[in-house]
Amino acid sequence: xxxxxxxxxxxxxxxxxxxxxxxxxxxxxxxLPMANPRLRWDWLHFQYIVxxxxxxxxxxxxxxxxxxPPRHAKTTLVTVQYVAWTLIxxxxxxxxxxxxxxx
Length: 103
Hints:
The structure is a single chain. This protein is an all-alpha fold. It is 56% helix and 0% strand. It contains five helices and no strands. It has helices at 3-16, 20-24, 28-35, 44-58, 74-89. Helix 1 packs parallel to helix 5 (74-89) and helix 4 (44-58) packs parallel to helix 5. The chain starts with a helix and ends in a 14-residue tail after the last helix. The model has no long low-confidence stretch (mean pLDDT 81).
């Protein structure tokens, strides 16, 4: 599945959630299984990344760089899911993501 199609699918799922108040009442770790139920969010590396993303959200850390092997769902978790949840929770926030692709 391409990044563009993942974003479209996530947008469709977000539209089906009951209301903005409902969406804002959930933390990132509680929101993930609702937004994307096809993945197993109980994997240890997901829990580890989500923990750091929650620290990023609260301001305990200011920047975060992730270095994981290919096919560990970094893009899905951080670039798609986390950015979507952040913008739903606080539409005034801004996000900047970058990546390097080596062939």
